[in-house]
Specification:
The model has no long low-confidence stretch (mean pLDDT 97). The protein is globular, with a radius of gyration of 19 Å. The longest helix has 16 residues, at 124-139. It has 2 domains: 2-173, HUPs (Rossmann fold, 3-Layer(aba) Sandwich), CATH 3.40.50; 186-278, Pantoate--beta-alanine Ligase, Chain: A,domain 2, CATH 3.30.1300. The chain has helices at residues 7-19, 35-47, 65-70, 75-84, 95-98, 116-120, 124-139, 151-163, 193-198, 200-211, 217-229; strands spanning 2-4, 24-29, 50-55, 89-91, 143-147, 169-173, 234-243, 260-268, 271-278. With 279 residues, the protein is of the alpha/beta class. The strands form 2 sheets. The protein has a 6-stranded parallel β-sheet, sandwiched between helices. A 3-stranded antiparallel β-sheet has the order 7-8-9. The protein binds adenosine monophosphate. Adenosine monophosphate binds next to α2 and β5.
């Protein structure tokens, strides 16, 4: 397993792989790896000759400093896990390597980033686009793997890749959950035991609502928010039922040919948890 900290090394590694006719799969992460990341690794390894995983806590996608400072970091353990899963190359750059000069690009995602995460974290997706576009340029990956857990991010990255004519195919991967249904997330490690127990209600309520017939979109939204807000220590930041492709809010349950997705953000104290489910 190669571990690189510079763009030059990764670029050379990728060029060499490609010159040998080996396909490249890329998995961008912020580290503190868990089962969700590993599912991406497994899929990537099945579909590509060379698997590259990047670990970079991208400062440009954090809206507040304390969230960035508190973000879990566990590089030694991450490297151990990745070795076990036979990842070919790990890229762990620092911020100076990724952004030698300020990246002043402003991306336009149309209506995709106006609501939900984009509304509550206004510069977040611009920061995501800066790092993902750089990683795609550096690796020229054939495929890149992203989790459906970050549903809006996935929609935005698909848009970015089309708009900038990247050759990389974006491969969505289903959300991996803990036994009690909580979506796996690096941030789960920041929850107290009580918050962790209570957080299971998020996916329970989403699942129940997604199967419920006979309620309007508005009634479903109220029901989900009430049940979660009634759980001690949890507070809904937003819950939206949206078109599965355009992410525009649904008015009627039956209306969309792209299907509907219920997307939620919940605060458990200072920790922000997101999840979604097909409705
Ligand atoms: P992160 O390290 O949180 O930036 O996540 C890196 C990638 O892993 C992103 O594409 C996420 O959507 C994906 N991911 C994170 N959690 C999960 C999960 N529970 N299931 C599937 N994919 C996930």
């Amino acid at each position: 397993m190669e571990v690189f900290t510079t763009i030059k090394e990764v670029r050379n590694f990728c060029k060499k792989s490609k010159s040998m006719g080996r396909s490249i799969g890329l998995i961008p992460t912020m580290g503190a790896l868990h089962g969700g990341h590993i599912a991406l690794v497994k899929k990537c390894r099945e579909e590509n000759d060379t698997t590259i995983l990047s670990i970079f806590i991208n400062p440009l996608q954090f809206n507040n400093k304390s969230d960035l400072l508190k973000y879990p970091r566990n590089t030694d353990k991450d490297l151990e896990i990745l070795k076990k899963h036979s990842v070919n190359c790990i890229f762990i750059p620092d911020a100076k390597e990724m952004y030698p000069v300020p990246d002043e690009r402003v991306f336009n995602f149309g209506s995709l980033d106006k609501r939900m995460e984009g509304h509550f974290r206004p510069t977040h997706f611009n920061g995501v686009a800066k790092i993902v576009s750089r990683l795609l340029q550096i690796t020229d990956a054939d495929r890149a793997y992203f989790g459906e857990k970050d549903y809006q991010q996935l929609a935005i990255i698909k848009h970015l890749v089309k708009n900038l004519n990247f050759n990389t195919k974006i491969v969505p991967c289903p959300t991996v959950r803990e036994k009690d249904g909580l979506a796996m997330s690096s941030r789960n490690a920041l929850l107290t035991d009580e918050q962790r127990r209570n957080a299971a209600v998020i996916s329970e309520v989403l699942k129940e609502a997604s199967k419920k017939t006979g309620l309007t979109v508005q009634e479903l939204k109220e029901r989900v928010c009430r049940k979660i807000n009634d759980t001690p220590g949890l507070e809904v930041e937003y819950f939206e039922i949206a078109d599965g492709e355009t992410l525009q809010p649904a008015v009627y349950r039956e209306a969309s040919e792209n299907g509907l997705v219920g997307c939620i953000a919940v605060k458990a104290g200072e920790v922000r948890l997101i999840d979604n489910m097909v409705f």
